Amino acid sequence: MNRCAPYCALADRLSSVSMSRVIVWLEGRSHAAINGLALSILLVISAIDYVTPPAISTFVFYTIPIALAAWFAGRASGLATALLAAGAWMTSDIALRGAPYSEPAILFWNTAARSMTFVLVAWLIAEVQLHLSREQQLARTDPMTGLFNARAFFHELTMEVARAGRARYPVSVVYLDLDNFKLVNDQRGHAEGDRALSTVGELLRRRVRGSDVLGRLGGDEFAMILPATDVVEARTVVSNVQSALKIEMKQRQWPITLSIGAITCRPPFPAPGVLLQAADRLMYQAKAAGKDACLQSTWDAAK
After folding, report:
1. Fewer CB near the terminus (10 Å): N or C of the chain?
2. 17 pLDDT higher than 70
3. pLDDT bucket at 29, cuts 50 / 70 / 90
4. pTM of the model
5. pLDDT at 124 (0 to 100)
6. Residue pLDDT, tens place only, 207-260
7. CA dihedral 49, 69, 82, 60 (to 10 degrees)
């Protein structure tokens, strides 16, 4: 048995955790802060390049601030950092330690080559980051409505419950089901049903606050997370959504209404899944009572 294996595994785990924390920290910085950090690193590398013999290449170190700016601040910042890096390298060559080339043309040729290389590095890193962000967004988004899909919504609910638990504010969870949606599919076709789902998603976006979270959980079921929202405030939000949907559906001649269950909870919170299930049960009770209705409760009363 390799006695070093447990220590190596622990070192790998600690390294992974540390890197994850660094990435999370960087993602939370503004573009201006990232650009400032990249510039600071570039200045340090330029100083190191100045004291390093010309025979030792420092190319790979210049790519660090370029990659940082391109990944966390975008393509424009990456390209600007790339040009600054090429200029810093040229400055180290000619202004600080004297041009080490027999002909001035060599200096400008090398600077142009470095500039093109750095620009290519910045461009490629920015493109990879852009495509990765798009893929991550698609993985979290319901393609029909543009809202969070079920998995992403549950993740957002988990995060919100954790934040509310620390800050000690209430959270309301709303479960919505479209009444008579099957009639639209059966009588007018699935294309019309898809338009109805898309319309509902757009209506929900228009009727909630920027801090609220919307999701389509599947089929004709939607859900909302209303942070820092008590029973009275949740009733106002739900009433506005229900009234707006009736008007919209009537204009489009769709026989769709909403059955809604809304649960409001204050810390300490139950598990996120339990809270969502409580709202789901209230929604089914509203549907069983005749549809086009909303049932509200607090978590203490629902237990």
Report:
1. N
2. no
3. confident
4. 0.66
5. 94
6. 898 899 999 999 999 999 999 999 999 999 999 999 999 999 999 999 999 999
7. 40
More confident residue, 69 or 16: 69
Name which of 162, 163, 158, 166 is nearest 276 in CA terms: 158
Final residue belonging to a domain, choices 119, 140, 161: 140
Q: Structural domain of residue 127, as residue ranges?
A: 5-140
* Beta bridge mates, 262: 174, 296
Name the E strands within 150-303.
Answer: 171-179, 213-218, 221-227, 257-265, 294-298
Q: Which amino acid type is present at position 264?
A: T
What tokens does 245 get? Answer: 């949907």
Give the contacts of 156 (CB within 8 A, at least 6 positions apart). 148, 213, 215, 225
CB-side neighbour CA atoms (13 Å) of 161: 18
Token pair listed for 296: 């509200």
pLDDT value of residue 192: 93
Q: Which residues have CB under 8 Å from 192's CB, separation 6+?
A: 184, 185
Residue 230's alpha-carbon distances to 165, 187, 265, in angstroms, are 15, 40, 8
Whether 131 and 183 map to the same domain: the answer is: no
Identify residue 57 by its one-letter amino acid code: S
CA–CA separation, 269 vs 275, rounded Å? Answer: 8
As for how many domains the chain has, the answer is 2
Length of the chain: 303
**pLDDT for position 95:** 58
Please report the pLDDT score of residue 98 as a whole number: 59
Residue 288 carries which side chain, given as an amino acid letter?
A: A
| Catalytic position from the list 177, 220, 292, 300 | 220
Give the CA distances from residue 118 to residues 132, 260, 284, in Å, rounded to whole numbers and listed in that order.
21, 56, 59
CA atoms of 131 and 141, how far apart (whole Å): 15
179 catalytic? Reply is no
Amino acid present at 120: L
